Every structure is written in structure tokens, then in C-alpha cells.
């Protein structure tokens, strides 16, 4: 077992915490008294918050980009080792992001077992592996221009299938337990492909990948309404997704990315539906205003995030054994320091979870049974209106994290130190 050596000097975190500790305790006690009046035990909520976990994608540690441009910052990570080091900074400060989700071939990994050790030494493990057949890599024999798993050319499909199976094999060495499959496949013109035949081809390819899954693995299928294909996508929505997942089998589940739906779609209802049918596999958290904007989770619509978690908490209560969604942040940090965005996002996500835990479930069930509409609504709103920041801060302090992670990060000087050590990253466009 690797010896644990966290990236920031713990003294930096402790110096920061000394300033904040009393105020956090005071706020926590005040909130504890308020919740006690609602017959809610703040410590019980705090324990659940402490157990919460949301994975960081390795690419989220880098400065993101749009299809137009990318604005690198000095000291950003340029390889998987540096990305893992930055993920470890996030985890050290917030203590709810212990897993990293890798992406191939963006992450070039020569020795997965050694990387697993390296990550363990930084206090991290690995979550789902992500395949990439939405862009071409130099030297690859066949292009994904017209699709990958659903391509009309069987040689292209075989290449895409082989890549997914390679991802599983690397993931096994990293200690991952899931493969996330998102394809950019689709069409830009009516008539370009048969909508029925392209889905058939996708399902046939997905079945071959599914057959290569280890027994304790899951295959998480991610749907997306549009982009990069702009007229139709093969796995366009949760309806297609759940039908495919059902056809594949019990190890296949649906992944909900908050940005991958039509505008105004009731995502919390989709969560409830997928959970009802045992097909809620995981979540990609981000926020959006217009489409798949990949903004920071909770930055635009924290209320929607709360309503999603309200369904997640209810789903867990309904079937605790079956409930094990893989949570991950999936954003493009275009103009912020990625570490700060990841810290802010993790905080928004766990805050939504904490608020959902505050919903008085028995009172809600009673109000619903009586068709007392206003009472039911007020129960949700009361939970949403509660300031849970002291619960989150207390959980971080107890776990050795920072009272105010972004302030502590700024005090640490991590990025300017890395700017001296790391080579500059490339200009251009695209996420990484
Ligand atoms: Mn996603």
C-alpha cells in the first residue's frame, strides 16, 4: 500500500482552519437547534454528508474550452499525473471527491497498476472509465466521421468496439467498476442514415462490449439530444437509453448528464423514472442555460439540482440495496481555475444533497396522501431554503479538509508553484 502524501502541506489547511473553526461551530450549533425544532438530528445529516462522494473527471482538472477556443492558464496540468495531483488537491480540501474518472485516450497511461498506486498515495481511487469514439486519434486506421458504434462501415464499428474493450481492460487494472459510453454518433441531414438501422447497429456493437464486462462491472450509457451531430443522435434521450439498457441486460444502466436534455425537460422526473425501473446508473453534474453549456453545477439553477437530489434521496429510501448511482462532475471550466470550479461544484452538489436530506419525508407522504398541495410544496421549500453551509463545513473540518476550500486553495499558492514546474499547455480548441 502506498504511503499517503497529500499534495498541500497540512499546515496550510490547519492555519486556514484555525481562523474559521469557531465560527463554523457556532453556526453549526445554531442550525442544530433550528433543525431540532423540526425533529431533525443535525449530526445524522452530517454523517450522510460526510459519506457523500462525487467523482472528478481527469479532464475536469484541465482548463476546458469551447469549439471556438481555449484559454490556457499557467500551471494547468498537461498529463494524467499532473491531473491526478490537482484532483488530490480538490479532495484534500473538500473531502468528498475521493475518486477520479479517467478518459481514454485523453489520459495516456503507460502503467495502470503504477498509476493506481500513485493515486492511492495521494488519497485517490478510480471511478468509471470513459471511452472516446467521438473524435479521431492520429494513426488510427478508420475515421469516426460518420459514426463509431453505429457506423455503417463494420470495420469502423469493430475499431470502436475494440477501443471500449481496451478501456475496460485498463479500468480493471485501475480498480474501476464501470465503463461509461457516450458516442457522438448521429446525423446532420435528414435521410443521411436510417434511424432504425443506425440504432440496430449501435445495439449490436454495445452487446459485444457488454459481453466483455467483468461480472462486477456496469456499463453506463449516456444519452445526448444533440451535438456533435445536429440533426439526430443515435442515443438521443432517456427513452432510447432505457430501452437499450434493458435490451443489453442488468449490468447496463442509464447515465443522466444534466446538460444532455431538451430545454425545460423535467430532469428530476427522469431520475424518478429511471430509478423506478432499476436503470439509474449515474449522473454527470453540470449546469446550463441554453443547451449543453457545461457550466459549473448549481451556478445557474441550484433549485433544479435540489429537486434532482430530492428524487435521488427518495429513490434510495425506496430501494437502498439497488441504489448506487455513480456521481461525477462533468463540466468545461473555460475561464476559471479548474480546481476552484471543481471545489465550488462539489460544494453545490453536496449542498443540494444535504437540503434533500432535510425534506421531512413522512410529513411529505402525509401531505401527498391528503392531497394537501400547499403543505407538500412548503415541505420541499423549507428544506431548500435552509442554509446548510455549516453542515458542509463541519463535515470537511471533521474529515481534515478546509473550512472554506477555495480560500484555503488560494492561500496555498498551489497554482503559481505549478506554473514554475509544469510545461505550458497548448492553445487550440476542445475540452482538453
Ligand atoms: Mn457527460
Molecular structure report:
The chain is of the alpha/beta class and 432 residues long. It is built from 15 helices and ten strands. The chain has helices at 10-37, 42-51, 80-94, 112-121, 154-174, 195-211, 238-248, 267-276, 302-318, 338-357, 361-369, 373-384, 389-399, 405-412, 414-421; strands at residues 56-57, 99-103, 125-130, 178-181, 186-187, 218-222, 232-233, 252-257, 280-285, 326-329. It has an eight-stranded parallel β-sheet with strand order 1-2-3-4-6-8-9-10. Manganese (II) ion binds next to loops.
Short description:
The chain has 432 residues and is an alpha/beta fold.
List the ions, cofactors and other small molecules found in this model: manganese (II) ion
Helix content: 40-55%
The side-by-side strand order for the widest beta sheet comes to: 1-2-3-4-6-8-9-10
Order of helices and strands: HHEHEHEHEEHEEHEHEHEHHHHHH
Structural class: alpha/beta
